[in-house]
Each structure stands twice: as structure tokens, then as C-alpha cells.
Design brief:
alpha/beta; TIM Barrel; about 20% strand; 8-stranded mixed beta sheet; globular
């Protein structure tokens, strides 16, 4: 008998409204290879903390399907951490959700190799990819996260080849990614991708600072402010001017 695939789950949200279209059941998987300076869930980064839940696909699907009436016009989002660090679990959940008529989005940084068979299988079957594009400049991306953006761009190109939809997510961090010349480059790059349905510009916020303190980890952005409403509007205008839909 085939051994059940077990996933490491950081947490779940039963009525998510910001991680894809409609009301969604959001599964935050444990573990991420990136070390983003502005991570608001640093407790989800280690592969295992001992505090996360372990679930089989059957156990998770039982929870998901108990909310079917609420999420049938939305769906399920696999997030993290980095969900593609657990690709077999993600793929089986996607297949089971599809068998039950549920739309599945995968929220990823694109850090995993899109040509690895298990990763590619997820990228080929997810109904929607929420791709968190950290920066266009590879050096800035490495400074922010510890890795460059090569695989994220490869992931975007693969979804373009497959003609499957992508929502780009980008966090605006003053002193880092809130740079209007860099945003011009990003918008000029993205406008050539027909798979990009919209761009979500997310303002850096301070809500995760306390977690860094609790974990005893060094946090470099205590003195970094959130973007002003004027800065957010100016950033959005850049993408609109390039013909992109901005949320």
C-alpha cells in the first residue's frame, strides 16, 4: 500500500480574502529557503520547529471540504513559508481539490527550480500562481532574500509558455524596493507577459516585528517606515502606465 504523503503545516485560514480570487481556504506550509529581511512570518522559515502540525492529504482535505459551501466560488490557496518546498504534498492536494471542483492557487517566491519534475508538476497544474517577485535587480534580490531572482523569472516564463495565469506580488520596502526607477524596469518587463493578469503592490508593514523579537533573531528594519499613501499611488501609476492591471 502506498504510504500517505505527510505535509508540515504552519497554520491555516478558513476565510482568506487576500490570497487569490474569492473566499479561500489558505494553507500555510512550514519551511522556506529564503531569508527575506521583511518576512512577517519568520517562524514559518525553518523546515521544522516542532510546533507545526503534520497532516496527511486526507486529513487536510477533510478540513478543506468542511468549508466547501463557503469557498466554492473562491477555492484553496497553498502558501507558506514556501509551499514548493513540499511539492509532492502540494501536487496531491491540488489533484484532490480538482477532483472536488475546487480552484487552487499556489503562492510562491519562485525560489525552487521550475524544471525539477516535482516542482514543474505543481506549476503545470495550479490554476493560478501568485508569484512574489522580490526585485528585478538580482543583486538587490540577493541582498533582500539571500538568493537572486533567476528561478522566479524562469517560473514566470514557464507559466507564460503554458498559458497559465499569474498574479505578480511585489512588496514595496522603503530604502530597498520602493525605488521608482526599479519599478519602471519591472513594469516594462512584465508588460510583455500575457499570463500576468494583475500586479499586487503590497506596502511593507510592521506587524511581524514582534515575531523576530520572540525568536531572538536579528531584524534590520526596525527603523524602516511603511510607504505613504502617496508613494503607493505613485508606484501603482507606473504599472498602470505600462498597461498592467494593478490591485
Amino acid at each position: 500500500m502506498k504510504e500517505p504523503i505527510v505535509g508540515r503545516i504552519h497554520s491555516t485560514e478558513s476565510f482568506g480574502a487576500v490570497d487569490g480570487p474569492g473566499i479561500r481556504y489558505v494553507v500555510f506550509l512550514q519551511g522556506c529557503p529564503l531569508r527575506c529581511l521583511y518576512c512577517h512570518n519568520p517562524d514559518s522559515r525553518p523546515c521544522s520547529t516542532g510546533a507545526e502540525k503534520t497532516m496527511t492529504v486526507d486529513e487536510l482535505m477533510e478540513r478543506i471540504l468542511s468549508y466547501r459551501n463557503f469557498i466554492r466560488s473562491g477555492g484553496v490557496t497553498l502558501s507558506g513559508g514556501e509551499p514548493l518546498w513540499q511539492p509532492q504534498f502540494c501536487q496531491e492536494v491540488i489533484e484532490r481539490c480538482h477532483a472536488n471542483g475546487l480552484h487552487v492557487a499556489v503562492d510562491t517566491s519562485g525560489v525552487m527550480d521550475p524544471q525539477a519534475p516535482q516542482i514543474r508538476a505543481v506549476l503545470e497544474t495550479a490554476d493560478l500562481l501568485l508569484l512574489d517577485l522580490k526585485a528585478m535587480d538580482p543583486q538587490l534580490c540577493r541582498r533582500l532574500t539571500g538568493q537572486d531572482n533567476a528561478r522566479a523569472l524562469q517560473t514566470l516564463r514557464l507559466r507564460e509558455e503554458l498559458e497559465l495565469p499569474v498574479w505578480i506580488r511585489h512588496v514595496l520596502v522603503p530604502g530597498y524596493t520602493l525605488d521608482f526607477s526599479e519599478l519602471e524596469k519591472m513594469a516594462a518587463f512584465l508588460k510583455h507577459f500575457s499570463c500576468v493578469q494583475q500586479v499586487e503592490l503590497l506596502g511593507f508593514h510592521k506587524m511581524g516585528e514582534y515575531k523576530w523579537k520572540e525568536l531572538g533573531e536579528e531584524y534590520q528594519l526596525y527603523d524602516t517606515p511603511s510607504p505613504t499613501s502617496q508613494e503607493m499611488a505613485q508606484a501603482k501609476e507606473i504599472f498602470v502606465r505600462h498597461g498592467l492591471k494593478v490591485h
